[in-house]
Design a protein that fits this description.
There is one protein chain. This protein has a five-stranded mixed β-sheet, with no helix packed on it. It folds into two domains: 1-38, no CATH class; 40-107, no CATH class. The longest helix is centred in the first third of the chain and has 18 residues, at 2-19. By secondary structure, it is α+β, with helices and mostly antiparallel strands. The chain contains four helices and five strands, in the order αααβββββα. It is globular and about 40 Å long.
């Protein structure tokens, strides 16, 4: 669990550093909360979405792959709201993600 927490934290920090976003505290008088950053153009948003390499859910972690694997349709989620305990693959407009087996995280 600690290893997973460290990995998730590292991914979140690297994504926030790469994006170069400011914090809400930097721009809001209260100095509390999270600032979502400036509005992105459609092209910038597309580029940011294509950079996502890992999706973490309560049903498991999904890593980006180059192409769909070909699971049964019942194991594929095409929207975030479709992800469930039987999901093995997520296919979005921005990429394909495959569930990482538990044993890959914990030696």
């Amino acid at each position: 669990m600690l290893r997973k927490t460290i990995l998730i934290t590292a991914v979140m920090l690297s994504l926030s550093n790469l994006a170069g976003k400011s914090t809400y505290a930097d721009h809001h008088p209260s100095g509390v909360g999270i600032y979502s950053g400036p509005k992105l153009s459609a092209v910038e948003e597309q580029k940011e979405n294509e950079r996502i390499g890992l999706i973490v859910t309560t049903f498991g972690d999904f890593a980006r792959v180059d192409q769909a694997i070909g699971f049964n349709e019942s194991e594929i989620a095409r929207k975030m709201s479709d992800i469930g305990p039987n999901t093995e693959e997520i296919i979005t407009d921005h990429g394909v993600y495959v569930k990482i087996p538990e044993f890959m995280w914990y030696p």
